[in-house]
Amino acid sequence: MPTPKEELSKYIETSEMSTGYIEQTDIISVGRYGAVAGSTESQAATIESAMSAAINQGSQLVFFPVGDYHTTALSTNQESLKFIGDQASFTTSYSGSTYVIHQIYDINTINNLVASSSGNVSFVSGDTSLLTVDSTGSTITLTALESTNITTLQSTAASFTTSISALYEATSSNSGRLTVVEADVSSHATRLTAVEADVSSHATRLTAVEADVSSHATRLTAVEADVSSHATRLTNLESTVASHTTSITRLYDATSSNAGLITTLQTDLNTHTTDTSKHLTIMTTPGDIIYYSTDSAPARLAKGAANQVLVTSVNGVPAWDDITSVSTEFDGIELLAWMLGGG
């Protein structure tokens, strides 16, 4: 089984390993599948998605950008995979032992020298008689050379002295700037991971907003239809109110005009109420007759006795009279005619 370094060398030169460079290759990065460093939520699902993608691609590497990844366990059915990272690690909550994140600076070991994350170097094994590394790990010194090569080396060194001096000065001048650049790159990598997480989160929120807008558009259309319907009803109501206003005005005018008539009617009613001569209560016995007297007022004619007939005087006043007294003045036929013809 190839080592992480051997597997990584299929994609890039090990001397060119960095987060930015690896992110530009086809190596599967967990960041592309939503893993967020520093999150307190489990990243197992996103990491396993990246693992599946690597298997499908035929790769054996999964890359972790800088940061700590929280997960309690990972799938163990993909043991052929190897994890590499740029100052990346699992949090202490990871309970598995199958997967270890190999750091780029640990993999970047060439000819028994290892480059640390700060760019310093040190021996890990081998003969140190030809090279020495100072205590800071920043300078490598030639300690001995084969005699046959000394003359050539001195000649070559002399010809390049000026160039080496200029290069050294430029290197010294740029070392501070390089340190700043490295710090910026590391910082930007972390910020980029956060941005990717924000973009993913915002995409979900945007989908929800779009759904809300669509829902609100439908509701707004319904509201507009209701408003249009209500506007028509309001117009009809205004027309009805205007019509009723005219009717009310006419009724008010008629009421004002009839006020005098009502007052006269009330006066007449009061008069009839207090004037007993105008009452019809003068009828006291069944069979009484009411007639219009010569006093221009109602008068009562009490009912007649048995065998009496109603006769009328010359002035038109009715009266009861015995039939015997009437018969002395008329014969039978004349009496019948008188009774039928009113005298």
SSE topology:
Elements (H helix, E strand, L loop, with lengths): L3 H5 L10 H4 L5 E2 L14 H14 L3 E4 L2 E3 L12 E4 L2 E3 L10 E3 H4 L1 E2 L2 E3 L5 E3 L7 E3 L6 E3 L4 H13 L1 H114 L14 E4 L5 E4 L6 E5 L5 E5 H5 L4 H10 L2
Parallel strand pairs: 1-2, 2-4, 3-5, 4-6
Antiparallel strand pairs: 7-8, 8-9, 10-11, 12-13, 14-15
Fold and architecture overview:
Helix content is 49%, strand content 15%. The protein contains eight helices and 15 strands. Among the domains are: 1-110, no CATH class; 118-144, no CATH class; 289-341, no CATH class. The strands form six sheets. Strands 1-2-4-6 form a four-stranded parallel sheet. A three-stranded antiparallel sheet has the order 7-8-9. By secondary structure, the protein is of the alpha/beta class. The model is unreliable at 108-117, 123-127 and 144-148 (pLDDT under 50). A hairpin with a 6-residue loop joins strand 10 (131-133) and strand 11.
**What gross morphology would you assign?**
rod-shaped
Strand content: 5-15%
The average pLDDT is 76
The largest sheet is: 4 strands, parallel
Looking at how many chains there are and whether they match, the oligomeric state comes to single chain
- Indicate the radius of gyration in whole angstroms: 63 Å
Please identify the structural class as seen in this structure.
Answer: alpha/beta
Distance between the termini: 155 Å
Strand count: 15
**Strand order of the main beta sheet, please?**
1-2-4-6
